[in-house]
Amino acid sequence: FYFLSSWLETTFGFYFTGSILTYTEVIYLAVIFISGILIGLIPAIKSARSALKDGLAIKL
Fold this sequence. Notes:
By secondary structure, this protein is mainly alpha-helical. It has a domain at 21-60. It has 2 helices and no strands.
């Protein structure tokens, strides 16, 4: 947003100060992102195991 800040201020009246994300917000986003990946892996692993138990083979 830094390169658009002057245009946004003159056109729409939006004024941005400081950094876009703080260190704490980056940590929160990283925790949410990693937990989402881990939670998404649980059903993926379960379905892959059940597909292999049913006789389906992995084709490479």
